[in-house]
Design goal:
The chain has 1 helix and 5 strands; from the N terminus they run βββββα. It is an alpha+beta fold and about 150 residues long. The protein has a domain of about 60 residues: Beta Barrel (OB fold (Dihydrolipoamide Acetyltransferase, E2P)), CATH 2.40.50. The protein has a 5-stranded mixed barrel with strand order 1-2-3-5-4. A hairpin with a 5-residue loop joins strand 4 and strand 5. The longest helix is centred in the C-terminal third of the chain and has 24 residues. The radius of gyration is 32 Å and the shape is elongated. The protein starts with 7 loop residues before the first strand and ends in an 11-residue tail after the last helix.
Length: about 150
């Protein structure tokens, strides 16, 4: 029996590790089902889903040159076609937009141009840097310069 990618096979669980389960495919062939390929849902502990000796249907996902066979239980399950879900649409709130005043008119009805925004940013930035320098200068010894 040749094992090809995409083939569905019957096998028996021969061993369980914390990262997956080894499946005996017969004729001395063994493959590994990774923990992420056991179920469509999250699997914290494989022992909750599989036990040694269970008969399972698996789908071959990969066959390595070194003889390693990758298997999947969740891809082997025939699932009915589910209706296509609409993508989730997230609405973002624009925090930069002026808030309406009590009378229903925006408080900042005139838009600021890029130059005025940039100049106010630079002013705030310079003020913050100077206050940081003022507060840390005394803690590092400050003004005296280096002594050799």
């Amino acid at each position: 029996m040749s094992i090809e990618v995409g083939a569905k096979l019957q096998g028996k669980v021969s061993g369980i590790t914390n990262f997956g389960a080894f499946i005996d495919l017969g004729e001395g062939k063994t493959g590994l089902v990774h923990i992420s390929e056991i179920s469509n849902g999250f699997v914290k502990d494989i022992h909750d889903v599989l036990t040694v000796g269970d008969e399972v249907t698996v789908k071959v996902t990969s066959v390595g040159d070194d003889g390693k066979v990758g298997l999947s239980i969740r891809k082997a399950q025939d699932q009915p076609q589910q209706p296509e879900k609409k993508p989730f649409k997230r609405e973002f709130r624009d925090n930069n937009r002026p808030k309406p005043s009590a009378k229903g008119k925006p408080q900042n009805s005139g838009k600021q141009d890029f130059d005025s925004l940039m100049s106010s940013f630079l002013k705030d930035s310079d003020d913050r840097l100077s206050s940081i320098k003022r507060n840390t200068e005394g803690k590092r010894g400050g003004r005296g310069g280096r002594r050799s």
